[in-house]
């Protein structure tokens, strides 16, 4: 596994224009794996027993212009393609996308806005101040287990201070644009699986306008329609003499949810796996006109033990059972968010800009931009540092997922942890984190010469490092 870590870090060298910045990336990457607390940048120093003077150097690393989220993630995607980790259907990548919100009450943190929490199970208040993130992930399979491997994350709200255009791009469309960037870098079309929040016309129109070489429809959307969704049949062709005026485009209006209890259409039955449980489902597939896109979409009505659901996709030939299985995998991105927040502390950043005017901590309407800045360039660097912090965590988590898939037995052996029940042959990211942590600590304590170990040792506090070695001896 240490060899894989060496090769991965060497591969990422192309993302950095300066060698010193690249060396700090290695230190931060290793620290994000081995740290036991998640209290921002200071946890990096504690995790590796670094000199206190490195604190400002680490801050400079995140604000550095020698690398960017774009350069980092582009090389990350290239590495993923070399490992052939992607789960594909009909020669298409399966991308999962969603939004997540994290509270931030810092008065001088850029892009903080008032957010509304829609989830019924969350412990957050209905309205709070924080960051609204959009994230694209790739579905990866390891034996009988699936992972959502993070590709890129961006802040999608509170950006009016930095936007030059008068008309802001909707959050839903920004997600499709991120997916288009991903497929153009990876060179493969995709199915983009989304939740019901994205069941709007602008998402399907943005996907239809996406490009990948000369391919038509490189992005096919799969999402859950709202319960009150209506669609239309094609207008019947008029025989004989055509009437005056424009030809009618929409035919009979159909409310889709009542069709589950109607005898107008005949539902089919099939045996399928629904969230890892095999059961018999009823389904009906209809290609109908939908007014928000002024075109034809495929509506798939599915009834199983969990209830009734209507899926909608832009792929008019997609098999209904494949669509259902892909949508069942959408929960993996929710697991990713939970792991990022609670296991790795990826949302525990505290970057702020002294050039920003202080904002109120009280949630209020986002109709006006209260904050102003004396230095827009430096404030933008602070926002970039926040996005860099989270995207490095995506790389850390994705690399640990790769180790769990490729070296499942070695990961279990090196983790030195006891599991009461083993739910899968493929270990989790947390178990892989323990395994790599033990491996790195063993190398730091030993006399083995390694360039990664040498980089870390050159920045360590010798007193604290020696004390830790005596404690673990």
Structure at a glance:
With 473 residues, this protein is α+β, with helices and mostly antiparallel strands. The protein has 14 helices and 13 strands. It starts with a helix and ends with a helix.
Write a concise keyword list for the protein shown above.
single chain; 473 residues; alpha+beta; 11-stranded mixed beta sheet; two-stranded antiparallel ribbon; 13 strands; 22% strand
Main sheet: strands, sense, barrel? 11 strands, mixed
Order of helices and strands: HHHHHEEEEEHEHEEEEEEEHHHHHHH
Q: SS-based structural class? A: alpha+beta
Mean pLDDT: 88
How much strand?
A: 15-25%
Number of helices: 14
Number of strands: 13
Based on CA atoms alone, the radius of gyration comes out at 25 Å
Q: Share of helix among residues? A: 25-40%
Poorly predicted runs:
none
Overall form: globular
Q: Give the distance, in angstroms, between the N- and C-terminal Cα atoms.
A: 23 Å
Description:
The structure is a single chain. The protein is of the alpha+beta class. It has a domain of 319 residues. The protein contains 14 helices and 13 strands. The radius of gyration is 25 Å and the shape is globular. The two termini are 23 Å apart.
């Amino acid at each position: 596994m240490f060899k894989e870590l060496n090769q991965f870090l060497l591969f990422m060298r192309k993302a950095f224009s300066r060698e010193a910045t690249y060396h700090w990336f290695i230190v931060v990457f290793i620290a994000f794996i081995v740290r036991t607390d998640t209290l921002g940048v200071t946890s990096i120093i504690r995790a590796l027993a670094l000199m206190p003077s490195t604190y400002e150097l680490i801050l400079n690393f995140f604000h550095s212009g020698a690398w960017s989220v774009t350069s980092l993630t582009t090389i990350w995607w290239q590495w993923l393609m070399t490992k052939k980790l992607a789960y594909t259907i009909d020669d298409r990548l399966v991308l999962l996308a969603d939004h997540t919100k994290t509270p931030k009450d810092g008065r001088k943190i850029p892009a903080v806005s008032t957010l509304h929490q829609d989830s019924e199970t969350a412990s957050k208040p209905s309205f709070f101040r924080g960051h609204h993130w959009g994230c694209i992930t790739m579905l990866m399979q390891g034996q009988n287990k699936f992972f959502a491997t993070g590709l890129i994350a961006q802040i999608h709200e509170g950006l009016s201070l930095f936007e030059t255009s008068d008309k802001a791009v909707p959050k839903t469309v920004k997600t499709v644009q991120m997916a288009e960037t991903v497929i153009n870098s990876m060179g493969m079309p995709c199915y983009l699986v989304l939740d019901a929040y994205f069941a709007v016309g602008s998402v399907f129109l943005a996907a239809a306008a996406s490009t990948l070489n000369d391919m038509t429809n490189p992005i096919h959307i799969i999402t859950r329609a709202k319960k009150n969704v209506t669609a239309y049949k094609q207008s019947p062709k008029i025989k004989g003499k055509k009437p005056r005026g424009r030809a009618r485009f929409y035919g009979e209006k159909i409310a889709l949810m009542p069709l589950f209890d109607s005898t107008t259409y005949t539902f089919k039955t099939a045996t399928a796996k629904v969230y890892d449980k095999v059961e018999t489902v009823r389904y009906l597939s209809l290609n109908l006109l939908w007014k928000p896109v002024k075109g034809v979409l495929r509506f798939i009505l599915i009834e199983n033990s969990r209830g009734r659901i209507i899926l909608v996709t832009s792929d008019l030939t997609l098999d209904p059972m494949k669509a259902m299985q892909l949508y069942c995998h959408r929960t993996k991105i929710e697991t990713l968010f939970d792991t990022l927040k609670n296991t790795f502390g990826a949302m525990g950043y505290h970057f702020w800009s002294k050039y920003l005017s202080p904002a109120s901590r009280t949630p209020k309407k986002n109709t006006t931009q209260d904050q102003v800045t004396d230095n827009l360039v430096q404030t933008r660097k602070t926002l970039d540092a926040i996005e860099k912090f989270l995207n490095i965590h995506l790389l850390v988590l994705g690399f640990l997922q790769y180790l769990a898939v490729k070296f499942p037995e070695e990961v279990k052996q090196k983790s030195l942890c006891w599991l009461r029940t083993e739910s899968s042959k493929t270990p989790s990211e947390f178990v892989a984190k323990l395994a790599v942590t033990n491996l790195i600590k063993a190398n730091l304590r030993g006399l083995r010469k390694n360039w990664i170990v040498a980089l870390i040792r050159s920045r360590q506090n010798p007193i604290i490092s020696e004390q830790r070695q005596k404690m673990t001896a």
